[in-house]
Amino acid sequence: MNDSELEKLLKAAPGPDLSPDYRQAFAEKVLGNLRSSPVHRTPPRSWGPRLVWTLATVGCVLLAFWIGRWHGRAETGQDILTNSKVIHETLAMFPHRVRAIVSDQHGINLVLSDADNVPASPPIYVRISDGKNLSSMVTFSGQEIQIDGQKLTVLAEEDGGIILEGKGVLWSNGKAILAAKNMQIQARTIAAGVM
Amino acid sequence: MADTDEELQWIAQSRNGDHAAFGELIRKHQQMIHTLTFRMTGSVADCQDVAQEAFVRAYQQLDSFQGTAKFSSWLYRIAVNACLDWRRREQRRERLLHDWSLEAAGQFASDGGGADGGELSREVQAALMKLPAKQRAAIVLTVYGDQNHAEAAKALNCSEATVSWRVFAARRKLKKLLGKHGGTHE
Question: Measured between alpha carbons, how far is residue B72 from residues A2, A50, B77, B107 in Å?
């Protein structure tokens, strides 16, 4: 079954058939609720404080990473990405906001979402080399990552397999189905037990 | 399609507390919202309750509708979040809910689809109910709500890539569950 056949099948299933009486009564019922209980209008959300909060937290975390690196000199970006304690604490500090912790030639970067909308899923370790640059990161299923201008979506399968897909790149379970010859990819789920 | 002048007028009047105008908005969108809440809850009683809650929330939040998106998309967003909130409240009764969903799907099917449609509706609804709530929301928005991934991402307050992943995962499960209904298997 392909996607369009599935969509056709889903749409062919009859939905709720509302009787005319129910339709008429429904609107009255909602309006009755509005009349019987005082309605508090919620003013539009202001994004200013949220943005400031996000920028401030990003700054704090970058500073924390920088201090951590300065303090423990020998600990490289690679070490941090495999340090389950650091990752665990970072995730706990920003629940559902951490999109990726990236280590590349520029150092360590924490990529945060501006809303707590990153679904809970096991962290995925990804290492990509294009022959010149090496990037490694911890990210999550469904997140889009960017490696040297190339956007890739990281997807985890139920059986533990990992898929990376982007323009001209499709990599699955350790095998490059479509990728530049010099692109080398490693990816694995970091087991919950390790975290 | 953009909102009609008439609809924009109802929205403006509703903002000023005109319940009759809001009633018109309810009547215009109630079928769409009931379809969404039924696909999300799988239960007749719950779909009606959540639809009602969605419209009350919409009235309360009317001031936040800025007209940059279609009113129906904005309403969808409120309804899908009402469904997800309902899902959280009901999580403890998941097993029971599943049984209700099968019963409810049969009930609607017998109203609307004839013998074949009834069986199909029951199976489709049962398959939808086997999806995690967020994957179900992504499928409901994109298939039944005809929203693209960007619109669904706004409704679900997540990234487009997350929606794409949820749709991808949901489709894969649905194909497995509904595979016997034909088509060439991948």
Answer: 29, 27, 9, 27
CB-nearest partner of B30 from A5, A23, A119: A23
Q: Which of B112, B161, B185 sits opposite A153 (nearest CB)?
A: B161
Q: Looking at CA atoms only, how far is residue B95 from chain A in angstroms?
A: 22
Distance, in Å, from the CA atom of A161 to the CA atom of A157, rounded to the nearest integer, reads 5
- Per residue in A152-161, pLDDT tens? 888 877 667 7
C-alpha distances (whole Å) from A85 to each of A81, A118, A193 are 10, 20, 12
Region of poorest pLDDT, from A139-148, B6-15, B125-134, B168-177: A139-148
Q: Domains of chain B by range and CATH?
A: 5-90 (1.10.1740.10), 94-181 (1.10.10.10)
Q: Is residue A38 part of a domain?
A: no
Which residue range forms the structural domain that includes residue A128?
79-189
Q: Are A27 and B181 in contact (CB < 8 Å)?
A: no
CB proximity list for B72: less than 8 A, separation 6 or greater: B3, B29, B32
Contact call for B48 and A27, based on CB within 8 A: no
Cross-chain Cβ contact B64/A44 below 8 Å: yes
Tell whether A63 is covered by a domain. no
Tell me, yes or no, if the pTM score tops 0.80: no
Q: Could you report the per-residue pLDDT of B145-155, keeping only the tens digit for each?
A: 888 888 888 88
